[in-house]
Amino acid sequence: MSVILREYIIKENFKEVDRLAKQLGLDSTTRVTIIFPNGKVIADTYNDPERMDNHINRIEVQEALSKGTGTSIRYSNTMKVEMMYASYVLTENNKVLAIIRTSVSASTIKETLFHIYLQLIGGVFLLIVLITIISLYISKRISRRLVEMKQQSQRISDGDFSLKFQFNDSDSVEIAEMGRAIENMAEQLLERFRIIELQKEEQDMVFSSMMEGLLVIGHDKRIINMNKSFASLLDINLSRSIGLDVSEVIKIESLLEFIESAFVSNVPIEKDIEILRIRKIFHVYGKPFKPENSNKIGMLLVLNDYTRLKHLERHRKEFVANVSHELKTPITSIKGFVETLTQNALSKEETDKFLTIILRQSNRLNSIIDDLLSLSELERYSETSGLQLENASVRNVLIGAVSICRERAKDMNIDLIMECDEAIYGYLNSHLLEQAVVNLIDNAIKYSEQGTVVHVSAYKISNKVVVQVKDNGIGIGFEHLSRIFERFYRIDKGRSRKMGGTGLGLSIVKHIAEVHGGIAKVESELGKGSTFSISLRAGE
After folding, report:
1. How large is the average pLDDT for residues 416-420?
2. 168, 434, 465, 521: least CB-packed within 10 angstroms?
């Protein structure tokens, strides 16, 4: 447009310049005025330029001539309204051809700005509403996901670790990471709980399988835990005891006193307690303890059944004393007669008498040692299961034993009667079983009256073979029956020694029965005789 306008001005075609100004102004709703450098108006959108004042003094014109462009807001005498003007110079070869000025009403601009502001405010409002709706939607989705995560976390805290968090494509990175973090936490908790449960099972297994009785008591004297051994030793109902006061469960006064002493003491204490009511001897160990982050004292009680150990200790002492006594008697006798022989001149008759006594005592001493060695060998078999058993005839064993004892029975005018079916076989060691039967027959002969009968028999019952030796002798008192198989135990010590017994015969019988996997028993009544029996596994 500036090119056409420049051409029209150079050619001084002012009508076309005026037409062009009017057309441009109407098209743009803007007043266009073209002014010569001397202030003369040559074209105007709304007025006849011939009738318009010289515009050389207009502010915007002066700025345009001096700076190339100019602006101003002022009252227009022509338009009779306040106008906003903007002008710039049109040049040709650095010569100002004209000044092109545009102007609009200030009220129009204000109205336009007002409408723009309204549109802007409306747009901002709509944007705020849209953002609010989007935010509510997003926050609702996030809240729903957070609620799901909360529910998932609650289920995890309740012990359900099997759930998996379901992810959506619309989930944010943060939600996805949080979900994965919850899953990882659930997996780690599951693994830790599995390890804890495994450790607890191992501890419970160790706790319950210990032979020692264990009792854990809290500071309030209530039972925290108890193993099966403790409940069994004191005949306590385990399932009903946890949580009860210890005095409600344990009714043994001496044990309750020990527990009180253990609570008072700051160091572990121990004591042997004998409970006559149940015929038991316990070794009790009490150790106070403080749980972590607590000043309250609890206690661990360890209970060991020393009954068998004490009995064994007593038997050991008795055995040592008996062995010492049994060996000392013949040794003293031998020593005394030897000293008499060496220190005195004796007749041949007296010398032969003393030598006979020395020989008898030596034989007795030898018998005791032989029997002790036999017992030692039998115990070794028991400990190592080293005895070889064979499927053999029981009748043949009884025939051998009876033949060995028959002469002595004849001397005592005692009949030996044997009853055993040829078809009875058992898993046995023939030599040892024969020794046991000989010992039983020999005992029966010793304690039977002349003219009586000793019955030797064997019979099969179920998968067992029972060998019996029955006499009609003096019998055994009830108080002796439980100890009759003990080493060196004698009912009548004087009579036993006089008959040449070592006090180990029945103990040997018992051990022979045990190495055969059976037992030795006795049934007896004073004045009515005794029945000894040995059981062993039946053969084929």
Report:
1. 91
2. 168
